UniProtKB/TrEMBL annotation:
Belongs to the short-chain dehydrogenases/reductases (SDR) family. SMART domains: PKS_KR. It comes from the Bacteria. CDD domains: SDR_c. It comes from Alkalilimnicola ehrlichii. The keyword Oxidoreductase applies. This is Oxidoreductase.
Length: 258
């Protein structure tokens, strides 16, 4: 039984990227509360360590692997260390991402395009590929969730590449779902609206009230709001859901005149 007393992922092993802050930090703790052993991934070791220590202190199991998700060598190391320590992979939450150096396309540098696509799109593709090889070998099925965005179908001026990177994730899962569904492996996205994380806070406090007012629920989201949906998609409760991009936005994007 997990420390929460509610353990939908008992004996499972979950890899969470971007697990040192924001949505990934909350998700790593939530996977652990549900009974999963958790592998926390990100580039900076210190925030991963402190989150892993918090998990272990409350009775969970966690290890950290400092890695850049855009490097195939690093991603292979994440999988190898996971298998070495826990022997299997059941869930992957491809959550690491950057907002990057966006802006009007005419002012953007090619390097910013490459960085955004490498981290936000190629990163999840690399870890999905590596984890699927292990899941298929193990034959025990599995669940993968990526963090997309409301901006995969929406847009604000300045998000040409960010939006494209997230739309790429929405497209990717449809094909992968068809490739591995018959092996009991599901893949879905969570598409957050505006969420209170360091990524949002980088824009300043003043942006928050008008964004909160736009959402049907009258507030911006918490990292836990998104973590709950991502972890749920990995549980058996979501066993008939695959290839879907789930908006978790408090009604921020409800369309039509208002
Ligand atoms: P955050 O706190 O900035 O989290 C992003 C995490 O990704 C950081 O922990 C970062 O750690 C990690 N990361 C970035 N690049 C990486 C790389 N190359 N390799 C490994 N880890 C990397 O912001 P967040 O809002 O929680 O973001 C999580 C996800 O939600 C992102 O994919 C973001 O695009 C998406 N999202 C956020 C919002 C929002 O309103 N906050 C809305 C829609 C979608 P290191 O820097 O240590 O690597």
């Amino acid at each position: 039984m997990s420390n929460s007393g509610y353990s939908r992922l008992e004996d499972k092993v979950a890899i969470v990227t971007g697990a040192g802050s924001g949505i990934g930090e909350a998700a790593a703790r939530t996977f652990a509360k549900e009974g999963a052993s958790v592998v926390l991934v990100g580039r900076r070791e210190a925030p991963l360590r402190s989150n892993a220590e918090a998990i272990v202190k409350t009775g969970g199991e966690a290890i950290t692997v400092a890695a850049d998700v855009s490097s195939s060598g690093d991603v292979d190391r994440v999988v190898a260390e996971t298998l070495h320590r826990f022997g299997r992979i059941d869930c992957v939450f491809n959550n690491a991402g950057i907002q990057g150096n966006g802006g009007p396309i005419v002012e953007m540098k090619e390097a910013s395009f490459d960085e955004l696509i490498a981290i936000n799109l190629k990163g999840p593709w690399l870890l999905t590929r590596a984890a699927l090889r292990s899941m298929l070998d193990g034959g025990q099925g599995g669940a993968i969730v990526n963090t997309s965005s409301f901006l995969s179908t929406g847009a604000t001026a300045g998000t040409s590449v960010y939006s494209a990177s997230k739309a790429g994730l929405d497209a990717m899962i449809r094909a992968v779902a068809l490739e591995v569904g018959d092996k009991g492996i599901r893949i879905n996205n969570v598409n957050p609206g505006v969420i209170d994380t360091p990524m949002l806070r980088a824009h300043g406090e003043e942006v928050i009230p008008p964004l909160a007012a736009r959402a049907a629920l009258g507030r911006i989201g918490t990292p836990q709001d998104v973590a709950n949906a991502a972890v749920w998609l990995c549980t058996d409760e979501a066993r008939f859901i695959t290839g879907q991009s789930l908006l978790v936005d408090g009604g921020f994007t409800i369309p039509g005149p208002r």
